[in-house]
Structure formats: structure tokens, C-alpha cells
Design a protein that fits this description.
Blueprint (H helix, E strand, L loop, with lengths): L1 H15 L11 E6 L4 E5 L14 E5 H10 L8 H11 L1 E2 L13 H6 L3 E5 L2 H7 L4 H9 L6 E4 L6 H18 L5 E4 L3 E6 L2 H18 L11 E3 L4 E3 L2 H9 L4 H6 L4 H13 L4 E4 L2 E4 L3 H23 L9 H8 L2 H8 L2
Parallel strand pairs: 6-7
Antiparallel strand pairs: 1-2, 1-5, 2-3, 3-4, 5-8, 7-8, 9-10, 10-12, 11-12
Helix pairs in contact: 5-8, 5-12, 11-12
The structure holds zinc ion.
């Protein structure tokens, strides 16, 4: 078990310590222990970098979730979202000396993938997943790489996404005889999976660097800069300050272009519940809240602006979530829980 925890901390630090890979409590990682059938996965609402030997992760019975998705009978009329959430919940295995937390909302797809899973909301991957031309571009950039990839359309997270991912992987394996190590998820993010920890990290880096180089982007978006004020913090992150100098930024602007679920969970919905948390005044963004929430808001905002600006500058067409998809996220119990974890 110790080795599994060590590996989980390793990939979580790798993916979680950069704001261009993950923002706020977004993204998640997991490692399976194939000897005893458990899987360690990030706990819902926590940041990847919070994971250490005793906190911010949870153990689940991987086979219980895996078997559910492999045998679920779709011919019956019932609430599969609820049923699968119950399976995830009941699969939690308490560990001695470690607080039992709720697994990531994305535990379902982690269970069906390979030993190591790194799932990020990388701004580079999301340039592709949030543009209409993204899938064709992925084909062009990655067709000659030594790893296979699939590109999933937008699917509501939870039960539907896990099942769609499983089906697409099964088809890919049947067609090509190999397992796709990379999964792009439309208006969502990136998954890299495999049986070797170094390989998974290397492939993840390769995907991101290939896209970054293709668009000629700098390597300066690794963290955000916040400066303390009397009532909280103000933004000094270049992507954000450059944008507000020349453009209007308010909730209406953010609502007009819903790119992916985390923008709604960590930005739009926070502003809907407490509008004074983020205020734009005289070309500066102010956050009237504690450092933890200010960081989450700033990282989410900077990532959003980075993706939108890059897509537009490259003369691509921004692709957004539709009304129904936005409604699902705003009313999904799992997301309400995630937003509430402070
Ligand atoms: Zn995600």
C-alpha cells in the first residue's frame, strides 16, 4: 500500500503543481493496487497538491465499480446516475488512521482505465477540446506519435461519461489492437493512462508540449500572482490583467461562453451565489475572500481567458457547452458537494 500512496503523491504533485495543468480543486489522479484490487483516488473537492500520506485521497474497491460498468443492463428504465453514484459510495474502503472522504466525482472512469490515471484540465488540451477544429487538429498533431488517442464528444460527467469512454476505448482496441493512452474530452480536459508511472508522466508532458509549441505559446503560465489588499486580494496574473485592460469582464461575459464544467463550478456559480467575491474595478480584478478561494477563482479565470484568447488568436472557432449541458452541471448533486468543500 505504501508504494501505491507514494506513486499517487508523485503523479499528483506532477500534475497539480502547475496552474496550466489544473486549477483549484479540478483534475484528479488515481493509482490501482493490482495485488489487492483497491484504487487510491483523489478525494472530491481537494486540490491535487493537498494529497499526502494521510489526507485528500480515498481507497475504493476498484473491481466493484469496474464490474458495475461491465455488466450494467441499460434496457431497464431507472436512474443510472443515482445507481452508479451509490456503487461508487459503497465501494469506499476505510483505511486505518485516514479520514474516510468522498471519492472524486470522476471515480467511475478512473476504475475502467489502466493502473495510473492523470486527469487534468490542461489549458493546452482545452484549446483543442474547446474549439470546433480541435479534433481535426489532434489528428494532425498526434497521428504519428507512439501512443494512441481517442477524442470524446461532450458527455455529461458521471455515469454517461464513464460508459461512453468505455465503449469508445473498446472500439479503439478492437480496431487498432492497442489501448489508447490519451483521451481528449470535448469541453472538459485530458486523461493520460498506462501501466508505468514514468511513461504516463512523459506522455502527458508530450501532449501538452506538442500543443503549446504548435500554437507558439510561452511557458509562463505555471502559476498565478495575487497581491494582498485590505479586503482580500487583487490579480496580478498577466493573462488576467492584459484582458481586463481592454475588455469587459463580468458574470454575463462568463455566462455567455461556458467552456467546461469547472468554469461553472469554480467561477460562474460562485459569482451567482456571492457576486461580491470577484469585482472588476478600474482595470483590476479584486477578490474579496480568503487566499484559498481567491487562488481557485484566479486560476480558473486565468485558464479560461488563456483558452478563449488562444482559440480566437489562432482564428479557430470557440466551441461552448450548450444550455442543457450547463443545466445538468448546475443541478448535479455531486457538483454541489464539490463546490461546497472549502
Ligand atoms: Zn474533469
Amino acid at each position: 500500500m505504501q508504494k501505491t500512496i507514494k506513486d499517487l503523491i508523485d503523479i499528483s504533485q506532477y500534475a497539480g503543481s502547475r496552474a496550466d495543468y489544473t486549477q483549484g480543486g479540478g483534475g484528479n489522479t488515481s493509482v490501482k493496487n493490482n495485488d489487492n484490487g483497491t484504487m487510491l483516488i483523489k478525494a472530491s473537492g481537494y486540490r491535487l497538491v493537498d494529497i499526502n500520506e494521510t489526507t485528500a485521497f480515498v481507497a475504493v474497491d476498484k473491481n466493484k465499480i469496474y464490474n458495475y460498468y461491465n455488466s450494467v443492463d441499460l434496457s431497464v428504465e431507472k436512474d443510472y446516475e443515482k445507481e452508479s453514484a451509490e456503487v461508487s459510495k459503497s465501494s469506499v474502503v476505510p483505511l486505518q488512521g485516514i479520514q474516510t472522504l468522498r471519492p472524486s466525482v470522476e471515480v467511475g472512469f478512473h476504475a475502467i482505465l489502466k493502473k495510473y490515471v492523470i486527469h487534468t484540465h490542461s489549458v493546452y488540451a482545452n484549446i483543442l477540446t474547446c474549439s470546433q477544429e480541435g479534433e481535426a487538429l489532434a489528428e494532425k498533431l498526434f497521428k504519428d506519435k507512439d501512443f494512441g488517442f481517442i477524442f470524446l464528444p461532450y458527455i455529461n460527467p458521471g455515469f454517461e461519461l464513464t460508459l461512453a469512454m468505455k465503449n469508445k476505448i473498446d472500439c479503439y482496441v478492437k480496431e487498432t489492437g492497442k489501448y489508447p493512452e490519451v483521451i481528449f474530452m470535448k469541453n472538459h480536459g485530458l486523461v493520460v493512462t498506462g501501466d508505468y508511472i514514468d511513461r504516463v508522466k512523459a506522455v502527458n508532458t508530450d501532449v501538452n508540449e506538442t500543443i503549446r509549441n504548435y500554437f507558439g505559446l510561452g511557458d509562463d503560465f505555471r502559476s498565478v500572482t495575487l497581491v494582498a489588499t485590505e479586503t482580500g486580494f487583487k490579480s496580478e496574473t498577466k493573462i488576467v490583467t492584459d484582458f481586463v485592460k481592454n475588455n469587459v469582464l463580468d458574470k454575463a461575459v462568463l455566462d455567455e461562453t461556458p467552456l467546461y464544467p469547472d468554469q461553472l463550478v469554480y467561477l460562474n456559480n460562485i459569482l451567482a451565489h456571492s457576486p461580491n467575491t470577484m469585482v472588476v474595478k478600474d482595470g483590476t480584478v479584486y477578490y474579496n475572500t480568503d487566499i484559498k478561494q481567491a487562488t481557485t477563482l484566479e486560476e480558473t479565470l486565468a485558464a479560461y481567458l488563456f483558452v478563449v484568447t488562444t482559440v480566437k488568436n489562432a482564428n479557430l472557432t470557440v466551441s461552448t457547452m450548450n444550455e442543457k449541458e450547463v443545466y445538468f452541471i448546475n443541478n448535479w448533486e455531486a457538483e454541489k458537494y464539490r463546490r461546497s468543500v472549502k
